[in-house]
Amino acid sequence: MKTIKEGFWMIIFFSAFLGAQTSDEVRKPEVAGMFYPGNSQQLKAMIDKYLSETDVVVDGEIGGLVSPHAGYIYSGPVAAWSYKQVAGKSYDVVVVIAPSHFEYFSGSSIYPGKYYETPLGKLPVDQELAERLAKADKKIMLSQTGHSPGSGGRSEHSLEVQLPFLQQTVGEVKIIPIVMADQSRENVRILGNALAEVLQGKKALIIASSDLSHYHSYERAYELDKTLMDLFTDFEYQKLLEACEKRKIEACGYGPIAVMMYACSKLGYNKSKVLKYATSGDVPAGEKAQVVGYMSGVVYK
Length: 301
What we know:
Elements: H1 2-25, E1 26-27, H2 40-52, E2 62-67, H3 72-84, E3 93-99, E4 108-110, E5 115-118, E6 121-124, H4 127-136, E7 140-142, H5 162-169, E8 175-180, H6 185-198, E9 204-209, E10 214-216, H7 218-233, H8 237-245, H9 254-266, E11 271-279, E12 291-300
Parallel strand pairs: 1-5, 2-9, 3-8, 3-9, 4-7
Antiparallel strand pairs: 2-12, 4-8, 5-6, 10-12, 11-12
Helix pairs in contact: 3-5, 4-6, 6-9, 8-9
């Protein structure tokens, strides 16, 4: 009887171990059904509707995008403008850089598993390039930190919400998912230089995930966000970074925006354009007393 019991618990132990091992390789969708539809058909229909209401406005080779990351009913119509510009294009790899809202850590965290999953399927992680990035500097790490639920049980949404749009426009493509907690100038420089180095010779796209001002009046939000958009249009990413650090303007993902622009500049992309701006107060579900600003933008040559 003892042997049977021991065998039973051994099976349970190894089943749990194998299950954990599998879950470590696939980052499951954590905010499906909350930030966007959990049903794949409904999700496709929503994204297609938003894309149908946009235009392609950039004539050139695209190296980077800025896209918001709120719930789709609020920011989806704006995000669609960014993804419309790359619909049907092919890339060797797409880097997605998102801010960390719930966990603080020093530097940037690259998901170490094999796939990021959404209701539209799995996107493979380019593990070779991810490892090369992590070797570039100790501030860039391969880690579940920032990607899996933290100590408070909340999972980061800012990276995940970009992926269904990417799947619906570009299709299956290798990705490098990066969550950035410390958005200091040092870390912008470190990650920007590392990306520029590993992406040389690749047809790559870098997506910066960010909302703009938070919880101001409609008028004040537009005032703050216009300053940021002017700096973006002028390709002044260093001034944009400095203004956000001094809290003269707001963007929760100012670090990812600056990294994207810095890396793109080193890869030969020198033009930028704001594609669309709106706030949470511009949709039926929103209200104008306190709004969040959303911008879609593109870097190209």
